[in-house]
Structure formats: C-alpha cells, structure tokens
User: Which sequence fits this backbone?
C-alpha cells in the first residue's frame, strides 16, 4: 500500500515521540549536562558532514544565476521577517507572546538545503541553481540569522552581543563545515556512497537538541504555560505565513520574467525554513527553558511546508515536458 504524502514521514513521527518522551521523562541535573555535551558533538559532526557532502562543482554551476539568487535571498531574509512583524496584530493574540517570538525566530532562519533541492528536482526545476541558492542561504544564515534575531527579538545570544552570537555559531557550525569541505577530497566519495545511512546523523542531532530543549522547558513547566488554544492558533499562523510566502514567490517569479524552471526553484527555495539549521542555532542563541517554546513554531512549520510542497511538486511534475508532448496530447 502506497503511503499518502499528506501523512507525516517517519522522522516527523519520531520527532513527535521525542517531544512526548521529554514531556514525561525530561533530562535533569548531571544527565542534562552530559546530554548537552553529546548534543554539541553531534551538531559539530552534522555540519562537518554537510561540508563533506556539498559539491563545489554544483555550487559553481548555479552561481551565475544572480537574479534568481537575489530574489530567493530577499524572500528568505527580508520578506519573511517583514511578514512576521506585519502580522503581529494577528499572530500575537492568536498564539501568545512566547510563541510569537518563536514565529519571529522562524522568520529569521535560512532556507532548507536537502528538501528544497529534492522538491525542485521532483518538480523539474533548475536544479543547479537550487543547489547553489540553498547552500548559500545556509552559509549566509550563519551571519544573517543572529543579526535578524537581534533586530526582531532583541536577543543577543546568552547575554552577549550580536558579534558574540555570530562568533559562537561560526565556531560550532561554520568551522566544522569548512573542515568538511577541506576533508571532502579524501572522504567525499565515501560520504556519497553512504549518504543513505549518514542521514541518521542529521536526524539524530536534531532529535538530541529537541529532547534537550524540551526537557529543560518541561522542567520549567512549558505545558502549563501554553494553553491548547494557542497551539491550535499556531497551526493557523504557520499556514497563513506559508501561504503568503508561496503566493509572493509565485507572483514575483512571474513579475521579473523568470522561466518555468526558475520559478519552480524560487518557489521551493524561497518559501522554506531549515529545521536542520534552526534547531542547532537555537542551541547557541537561546539559553534556558525559552528554547523549547521558540523552536516549537519551527517544528510545526517544517512539517506543514513539507506536506504542502510535496503536493505542489507532484503537480509541477505532471506538466508536459515539451511543447511537442503537449501537442501530442491534443492531437487525435
């Protein structure tokens, strides 16, 4: 039996299970400290492997499409934050102040890499441009996200300055990534052959961070602080935000004269936010029990964007591949 694309994937179900585990069996005391060290090591390994997997040839192939990249970056780092601020009269009463802060954090994040490229490929968009745009968004996000978080949330990263936050993220995320790029010449082929099981490093590091964050939040009474109606409002808020960005991506792609393949790339690269990058960044930028609340909108938005984009990608994939094919469908 074929599994419906509207159903959550196995990782999302595991993510929900980890939140439930942390809700009933949260880590505390020395266990939580040791868990934090393990999480930091896993995050470093995650970005090391990202660096080893990313092909410089693929980046160069798509780097020349500067108009497309500029539009995608504008959607990711300008439109999202502007919408987050503009929708405050709607979102803040709907989800409460704490979850609204999480929505603003979501708006400050870079785009996804793997899923944006996968959906672009499925929809037959401009794959080299998608690879370049998604990868560059992830790298620029290391510097832009702390700045946007400072501007939007007035948070400076565990009591330091914005520069301190950028430095911490650079040490914990960028340096392992650069090390992975350097090591690619020796381990790149091995990483490529084993990418199917190495994805569990990606997923495992996220699960570790989520468990640690929610453990601390549960110990501080997160589920007593957030009423059920605010969680329901969060679903509505995420759907509204995603719908607005999808509409803007489609409209602007047509307005600036991009062809169909480029518009597909803009749609899937400009409308997505990265769970894989956002959760580790939250580990650096936010301290204490607030982190669990702040990443909750990101976790929910991640699942909604996957379900919606899966439907859109399937729809684009069914379009005729050429004018000749289209004519062939019309002719008797």
Assistant:
């Amino acid at each position: 039996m074929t599994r419906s694309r509207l159903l959550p994937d196995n990782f999302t179900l595991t993510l929900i299970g980890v939140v439930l585990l942390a809700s009933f069996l949260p880590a505390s005391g020395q266990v939580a400290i040791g868990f934090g060290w393990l999480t930091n090591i896993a995050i470093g390994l995650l970005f090391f492997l990202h660096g080893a997997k990313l092909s410089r040839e693929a980046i160069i192939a798509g780097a020349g499409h500067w108009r497309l990249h500029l539009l995608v970056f504008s959607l990711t780092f300008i439109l999202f934050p502007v919408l987050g601020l503009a929708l405050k009269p709607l979102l803040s009463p709907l989800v409460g102040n704490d979850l609204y802060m999480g929505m603003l954090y979501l708006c400050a994040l870079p785009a996804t890499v793997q899923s944006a490229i996968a959906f672009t490929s499925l929809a037959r968009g401009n794959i080299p441009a998608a690879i370049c745009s998604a990868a560059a968004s992830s790298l620029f996000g290391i510097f832009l996200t702390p700045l946007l978080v400072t501007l939007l949330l007035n948070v400076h990263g565990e009591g330091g300055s914005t520069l301190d936050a950028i430095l911490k993220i650079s040490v914990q995320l960028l340096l392992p990534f650069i090390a992975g790029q350097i090591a690619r010449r020796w381990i790149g082929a091995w990483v490529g052959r084993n990418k199917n099981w190495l994805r569990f490093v990606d997923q495992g590091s996220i699960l570790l961070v989520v468990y640690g964050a929610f453990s601390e939040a549960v110990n501080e009474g997160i589920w007593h602080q957030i009423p059920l109606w605010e969680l329901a409002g969060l679903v509505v808020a995420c759907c509204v935000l995603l719908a607005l960005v999808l509409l803007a991506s489609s409209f602007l792609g047509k307005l600036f004269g991009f062809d169909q393949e480029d518009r597909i790339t803009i749609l899937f690269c400009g409308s997505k936010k990265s769970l894989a990058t956002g959760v580790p960044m939250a580990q650096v930028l936010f301290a204490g029990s607030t982190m669990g609340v702040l990443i909750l909108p990101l976790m929910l938005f991640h699942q909604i964007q996957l379900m919606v984009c899966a439907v859109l990608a399937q729809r684009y994939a069914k379009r005729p591949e050429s004018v000749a094919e289209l004519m062939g469908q019309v002719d008797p």
Summary: The chain has one domain: 10-316. The domain at 10-316 is CATH 1.20.1530.20 (Na+/H+ antiporter like fold). Residues 68 and 266 are 7 Å apart (CA to CA). Residues 156-160, 323-332 have pLDDT under 50 and may be disordered.
